[in-house]
UniProtKB/TrEMBL annotation:
InterPro entries: DIOX_N (IPR026992), IPNS-like_FE2OG_OXY (IPR044861), IPNS-like_sf (IPR027443), Iron_ascorbate_oxido_reductase (IPR050231), Oxoglu/Fe-dep_dioxygenase_dom (IPR005123)
Protein name, entry field: gibberellin 2beta-dioxygenase
Family: Belongs to the iron/ascorbate-dependent oxidoreductase family. GA2OX subfamily.
Molecular function in Gene Ontology: gibberellin 2-beta-dioxygenase activity; metal ion binding
Organism (species): Ilex paraguariensis
Length: 361
């Protein structure tokens, strides 16, 4: 395989070429072996790697909502906070929350344990049984470089988090993760309840279908990447759940589609990010927006994040909060199977457009 190193139409200087080769050697020895898979995709697709000028990315600051307003003794403040959550979910599909009730101590402990886990050898992370055998890296289904994610993750069902047998030698991780998952679940239910009530329904509507047996935690690491920003840390996608709560570090790399262009989310280590998933968009009849987003890895610093996914059971029927409905009714299991089929056949997720009700005039 040949790598073509160019900057626009001009050859790279010797110093830049040396830097490139240094990073290449480092990544050949990387954990996990992402470069090996990426190189195979380049070779099979017949593409050459080109160093290009970085796109100038506009940086945005997500709407920030102080959740202490929901606990206020004054009805006007509670209503104003709920309205802000609903407005951000409709206009942005993303917002960040402060004073959310999860202590900095829990968040800090979870981050330290996460780093310790990912710093362990590749063979340990990939070993059978660790965290319910949930370790994933790269994109096994990718058929070309643009479908490849330069990242590794543990995608863990909440039902497995309390099981001692899942942790192996990582005994200190279990206690922290149990506490962290419970706090995230409580926050997710609070936010979902507000969004449901804002559309005129009872707060506990989703509590029966979204519990410990259906939700997930995903621990993410995005290793340094010498090809950034040409490679995705996480390919463009929408989330398939009701909502996601994200704890990210100060490195940055999260980008979302705002209007018709990508914007970079300014990192705020003191806030948690919340985004609407496909199921809430369908249920709300497009009042709330599930927005496409992606992650770009950093060329010098690795990035960590943790995501909580509020999901229903696979047999839960997703209807609409009002009629006429934009989408046909479907179960979460049906939705997941359609996504998997689309990824296999087309190489990418199609999502909600598959379930639109087409009205013929």
């Amino acid at each position: 395989m040949q790598f073509q190193a160019t900057l626009g139409h001009l050859p790279l200087s010797l110093s830049l070429c040396a830097t490139f080769l240094y990073h290449l050697r480092i990544m050949l020895e990387s954990d996990p072996p992402l470069l090996h898979n990426y190189a195979d995709l380049l070779r099979h697709s017949g593409e050459n790697y080109a160093v290009q000028q970085s796109e100038i990315m506009e940086e945005c600051e997500l709407p920030q909502i102080d959740l202490s307003g929901l606990r206020s003794d004054h009805e006007e403040e509670r209503e104003a906070c709920a309205a802000a959550i609903s407005r951000a979910s409709s206009k942005w599909g993303f917002f960040q929350v402060v004073n959310h009730g999860i202590s900095p101590e829990i968040l800090g402990k979870m981050r330290r344990e996460q780093v310790k886990l990912f710093k362990s050898p590749f063979e340990t992370k990939a070993s059978c049984g660790l965290l319910n055998n949930s370790y994933k890296w790269g994109t096994p289904s990718a058929t070309c470089p643009k479908q490849f994610s330069w990242s590794e993750a543990f995608h863990i069902p909440l039902t497995k988090i309390s099981e001692e047998a899942c942790y192996g030698d990582f005994t200190s991780l279990r206690e922290v993760m149990v506490e962290y998952a419970a706090a995230m679940q409580e926050l997710a239910r609070l936010l979902a309840g507000v969004l449901v009530m804002n559309l005129g329904h009872k707060r506990g509507l989703f509590e029966e279908v979204c519990d410990e047996s259906t939700c997930f935690l995903r621990l993410n690491r995005y290793p340094t990447c010498p090809f950034s920003p040409q490679v995705f840390g996480l390919v463009p996608h929408t989330d398939s759940d009701f909502l996601t709560i994200l704890q990210q570090d100060e490195v940055g790399g999260l980008q979302l589609m705002k209007g018709s262009k990508w914007v970079a989310v300014k990192p705020n280590d003191n806030a948690l990010i919340v985004n609407i998933g496909d199921l809430f968009q369908a249920w709300s009849n497009d009042v709330y927006k599930s927005v496409e987003h992606r992650v770009i890895p950093n060329g010098k610093v690795e990035r960590y994040s943790i995501a909580y996914f509020l999901c229903p059971s696979y047999d839960s029927l997703i209807g609409s909060c009002k009629e006429p409905s934009i989408y046909r009714k479907f179960t979460f299991g049906e939705y997941r199977r359609q996504i998997q089929q689309d990824v296999k056949m087309a190489g990418h997720k199609v999502g909600l457009p598959r379930f639109l009700l087409h009205v013929h005039n």
